[in-house]
Specification:
heterotrimer, A alpha/beta (about 325), B mainly alpha (about 270), C mainly alpha (about 270), B: about 270 residues, mainly alpha, 11 helices, elongated, C: about 270 residues, two-stranded antiparallel ribbon, 2 strands
Chain lengths: ~325, ~270, ~270
């Protein structure tokens, strides 16, 4: 236990490949292409035990392709990849035996009821029936679906289905939990409930790998994350470090009348470190938002609406790629 | 300004508004354009394969025995009208089972439709009308292809048999529709096919005279709608019409078609209510 | 370092999956739908009564390898073989297509130690077991109706497994190439003519020349001939040809199917 590497915020990737003995996921120059299209352009990754690691990026960034490779269901096209110290090309079943996977789209078994979904899934891991039943009940309790045990999958809400999928991914007590956009499409209440459960898993010391295009999710769940765009990793670090490195402390958002934003951007350009023009507002990156706002008013500009807030990962992403995460 | 579009509240209308029914023409032609390729073989090829296998080839062996075929000159002549009627039933089942559940459960088309000025009776009527057109088309082609085999006695018989075949199909459409709008799980279709459609297909006098059945089974067969359709079609095609019996057949089929239609409206109305 | 060693130890203990897991899953699904399971047995029996008995009144009977066999006894083995074919093909095509393309059950399964070969084997085993129950029931009905003429008929039961294996394997392989429900029309195009013309309802002597050769080369004809030779007791060396034919067909089907599953699900 003492030899377990800590997941330092700024942990520099260690040189070489074989030395990364402690990594649960270790990738160098990892590529994935489908025909002529290359979805992942040679990325390097290391995920340590107990760490909560995130992939942040818009749709099409290569997150899901990377996740499928890590889940040992999609062979890498080039580069090296080891999961739990094993090569997914030769040890797929052994690796998958110790993974928990929560895919982007639910793959629940619609012909089985809720509890049977867990029990049958357990059988795919070679877990005996009595033990499977015990774990199923425990997990239903954990995801708060005990009273739905006999219900059909189609009768569950979106949030309940996600929770069932999470429960299913825990049935084999995995060493590594892969969550592909765990809360996409859920309402705020369902998301918070799910985050709470994932937080508990994190506290139990489970290693989580999460993809998301929600920065609040990444900020909530991840110790460390990589920002992906167009198949490349464009930045990595802890959420806080990324914000510190790529953005200012605060942001003033100004909303003017429709169509005026581009023209007005020039008039406030000198008031902030950086100004971003979005279709519906201006973002002024600055150390002190209130002060900046006061100076905007001094110039006689009257925005329709204003908001001063802290920088988020969204701002980091905007800075790095020039685009927003969710459009 | 629109003149006749003051929508009558949906629940108050039990009879279809024909203008509203006609508005669904675009939807159903689109459906047919999109799906006809997938139904060419079952609609047109399969029934002919049955005619060749049973009528021509097996018929060759039957005719050697010189069995009594209710006055039909050959087994082919006996079985062709039966197959036509049975096929009308099968197309009816095909159009009013899975598609109805699809419109309710998978695509939720009916929900979208009744959110417009269309009401339940309009929706049901248009769906049944579409089924009727499919039946008319496939049985029409069947009769045309069978004509050169020389088993039809008269031309007017064929012309009358065609609407009778459509009526036979429609007699089933409403009932199947009502059933499909009631059940929640698609496993209900396996049951209705195995317990109703296939037994009717096999025992309603399409393949052999029902007098070959035991007296009890024969009595049951006489009650089935398909037998009435088969017998009426056969009378017309072989020119062996017995007016009294023909009238009984016709009444039975019309009552069933109208009754099924009413039942279908009622069941869909109930289903969309909740 | 210790962690990796530990992981290797656990890895060695990864469960050996066989495909039986899929059989158990399907059993669970059908246990809740027993009426559907039960009625699956009806269809061939109904055909037997209708065509065998009803049409049988119109036909004298046929010659099978020198024996004169009443029409019902002639048709019964045909129905038995055809229903083994239909059952296997339905499970292996519609059932698998749905799970493959729609509810994505297999994607979930493959996130576990299960392999595509396990899925192919499991699904096929299940559909064989199901059809074995039906064919046993049908054989008992035949015996009760006096349509079984030899003790060889006991072997007709395993013969139906072979038919199921051949058609289930081939059906599964073809399903992996299908893009939409419309493609199932082609399956019907293959099944219905076989059902009608493979010496099921009348002897192959109804055909001459190349047509007869073609019929005799179809897999259902091999199945029908094999089962009929067994239930009527007219066993010949031809029976072995049929056995070999069906075995090879099924094996190729399973192999192609599991390759294609790999391609579709693990890319």
């Amino acid at each position: 236990m003492t030899s377990r590497p800590t997941s330092g915020v700024r942990s520099e990737p260690l040189p070489g490949g074989e030395e990364q003995a402690g990594s649960l996921i270790h990738a160098r120059g990892l590529r994935k292409s489908y025909g002529d299209f290359e979805a992942v352009h040679g990325i390097d990754l290391d995920v340590q035990p107990g760490e909560s690691f995130g992939f942040l990026g818009p749709n099409g960034a290569g997150k899901s392709s990377t996740m499928r490779m890590i889940a040992a269901v999609s062979p890498p096209s080039a580069g090296s990849l080891s999961i739990l110290g094993l090569d997914p090309r030769t040890h797929g079943p052994q690796i998958r035996a110790r993974l928990g996977v929560c895919p982007q789209e639910d793959t629940l078994d619609l012909e089985l009821n809720i509890r049977d979904n867990l029990v049958v899934y357990a059988s795919y891991f070679g877990i005996r029936k009595a033990e499977a039943g015990r774990r199923a009940d425990e997990l239903l309790d954990f995801v708060q679906l005990t009273d739905k045990a006999k219900a059909k999958v189609v009768d569950l809400s979106g949030g309940m289905k996600r929770r069932l999928t999470i429960a299913r991914s825990l049935i084999n007590d995995p060493d590594l939990l892969l969550l592909d956009e765990p809360t996409t499409g859920l309402d705020p209440q369902a998301r918070h409930l799910l985050w709470d459960r994932l937080f508990r898993l994190k506290q139990q010391g489970k290693t989580l790998v999460v993809t998301t295009h929600y920065m609040d999710e990444a900020e909530q769940l991840c110790d460390r994350l990589v920002v992906m765009d167009g198949g490349d990793i464009v930045a990595q670090g802890s959420p806080l470090a990324l914000i510190r490195e790529h953005s200012t402390r605060e942001v003033a958002e100004l909303r003017f009348a429709v169509g005026e934003h581009a023209a007005l951007a020039e008039r406030v350009a000198d008031l902030a470190d950086r100004v971003e023009v979005l279709p519906d507002r201006l973002l002024l990156y600055t150390h002190d938002g209130e002060q900046t706002l006061a100076r905007v008013h001094e110039r006689g500009l009257q925005p329709v609406a204003v908001l001063v807030r802290r920088s988020t990962l969204e701002d980091v992403f905007l800075r790095l790629t020039g685009r927003t995460l969710v459009d | 300004m629109a003149t006749s579009t003051t929508p009558v509240p949906v629940r108050q209308r039990l009879l279809p508004d024909w203008g509203m029914v006609a508005r669904q023409r675009v939807y159903w032609t689109t459906v047919y354009q999109r799906t006809w390729k997938g139904s060419v073989i079952t609609s047109f090829v399969v029934p002919l394969l049955y005619v060749v296998a049973m009528g021509v080839l097996l018929g060759g062996f039957v005719d050697r025995g010189g069995a009594d075929l209710e006055g039909a000159p050959s087994y082919l002549a006996f079985v062709a009208p039966g197959l036509a009627a049975a096929h009308a039933m099968q197309i009816a089942a095909g159009e009013t089972t899975w598609p109805v559940m699809g419109c309710l459960k998978w695509h939720r088309t009916y929900y979208a439709m009744v959110a417009t000025p269309l009401a339940v009776p309009d929706v049901v009527t248009a769906h049944l009308a579409f089924a009727g057109c499919r039946i008319a088309l496939t049985t029409g082609v069947f009769l045309l292809v069978m004509a050169p085999f020389g088993v039809f006695a008269t031309v007017w018989g064929v012309l009358l048999a065609w609407p009778v075949l459509v009526l036979t199909g429609l007699a089933f459409c409403g009932l199947f529709f009502a059933y499909s709008a009631t059940i929640r799980s698609e496993s209900g279709f396996a049951l209705i096919y195995r317990l109703l459609v296939i037994p009717l297909f096999l025992f309603s006098g399409a393949f052999f005279p029902i007098s070959n059945l035991s007296p009890t089974l024969e009595a049951i067969a006489r009650l089935t709608p398909l037998w009435h359709g088969v017998d009426l079609t056969r009378m017309l095609l072989l020119d062996t019409v017995r007016p009294g019996l023909a009238l009984v057949h016709l009444t039975y089929l019309v009552v069933l078609a109208v009754g099924g239609w009413v039942l279908a409206v009622w069941r869909l109305d109930k289903r969309l209510e909740v | 370092m210790a962690l990796v060693t530990a992981s290797l130890v656990r890895a060695a203990a990864a469960p050996q999956t066989t495909g039986w897991e899929i059989v158990r899953r399907n059993f669970l699904v059908y246990r809740r739908d027993w009426l559907v399971f039960l009625t699956g047995f009806l269809e061939p029996v109904l055909y037997l009564f209708s065509i065998g008995v009803g049409v049988g009144r119109l036909v004298e009977g046929f010659d099978v390898n020198g024996h004169l066999v009443p029409y019902a006894a002639f048709v019964a083995p045909g129905m038995l073989a055809a229903s083994a074919m239909n059952g296997a093909v339905l499970d292996a095509t519609f059932g698998i297509f749905f799970k493959l393309r729609y509810d994505k059950v297999y994607e979930g399964v493959l996130a576990t130690p299960m392999r595509t070969l396990d899925i192919a084997r499991g699904e096929l085993t299940w559909c064989l077991m199901r059809s074995a129950v039906y064919s046993l029931g049908f054989l008992l009905v035949m015996a009760a109706m006096g349509l079984v003429e030899s003790w060889w008929a006991v072997l007709a039961w395993p013969a139906t497994w072979l038919i199921g294996f051949a058609f289930g394997g081939a059906g599964m392989a073809l399903t992996t190439f299908m893009k939409s429900w419309q493609d199932f029309e082609y399956i019907g195009l293959a099944l219905v003519p076989m059902f009608l013309f493979s010496a099921t309802f009348f002897p192959v002597t109804a055909f001459d020349g190349w047509l007869r050769w073609l019929v005799e080369a179809t897999p259902l004809y091999r199945g029908v001939a094999l089962v009929r030779e067994l239930t009527t007791g007219a066993v010949t060396a031809d029976s072995l040809v049929s056995v070999l034919y069906l075995l090879v067909m099924g094996a190729i089907g399973v192999l192609v199917a599991s390759r294609r599953f790999d391609k579709l699900l693990l890319s």
